[in-house]
Amino acid sequence: MAEANITTDEIAGTVPDKKIKVAHISGQLDESNIDEKIQTLYKLLEDNPQGLNLILDMENLDYMNSKSIGYLTDIYGKVAQNGGQVLIAKTKPNIADILQVVGLTQLIKTFNSVEEAVASVAVASGASNLAPAPVSFPVPISSPASLDQHPPVASAAEAPSSLDQQPLATPTQPPVASAASNLSPAPSPTTPPTPPANQ
Question: In angstroms, what CA-CA distances link 23 with 6, 45, 52, 133, 151?
Fold first, then answer.
């Protein structure tokens, strides 16, 4: 049986109103241990059902099989569905290659360190808590009260059309006769004489 371990801890006080948990994954996750070891992460999800920011520290992870990748994908889905996010930190080159080949790096952001992942949560948190920036315009805009002082604009039905005020242009050349009127009548087809019937 391969050795593997998953331990968790909390990063408290870094980002107010954000739950940040770090799961340190080490050893070799394979068929002999993954079903047991992954329960640590599912317990963490159960205890933190909403808004969990889960950082997977893979610095000491040497191997992971396809089943462990399936579990990580499921965990990502559950966390994202409940308003949280999963981040990966400090992967070894072989683990980074596996995650990229299976497409997990397109779903889950990866970072070079746990500190960078925590900073990403802080930036995302700050961005979501910011009030929208005020919009400035280069020219002053009239207030609604001053807009009421302007005369109303005529509707399309009331507005005179510039085309109605101008006479229509007359053609300078006589109209060209249609091609059909210049054609002579087609000759009527002649039927060849019917040969006499043989008697």
Answer: 6, 11, 12, 36, 68
Whether domain 4-129 has CATH 3.40.1160.10: no
Write down the residue that tokens 């039905």 correspond to: 157
Question: Would you state the structure tokens that stand for residue 11, as one six-digit string?
Answer: 């990063």
* Cα–Cα dist 106/163, whole Å: 59
Q: Per-residue pLDDT tens for 33-67?
A: 999 999 999 999 999 989 999 999 999 999 999 99
Kindly report whether the global pTM for this prediction surpasses the value 0.70: no
pLDDT digits (tens, 9 = 90+) for 119-131: 998 887 654 443 3
Burial 86-117 (b: 16+ CB within 10 A, else e): bbbbbbeeebeebbeeeebbeebebbeebeeb
The residues spanned by each domain of the chain are 4-129
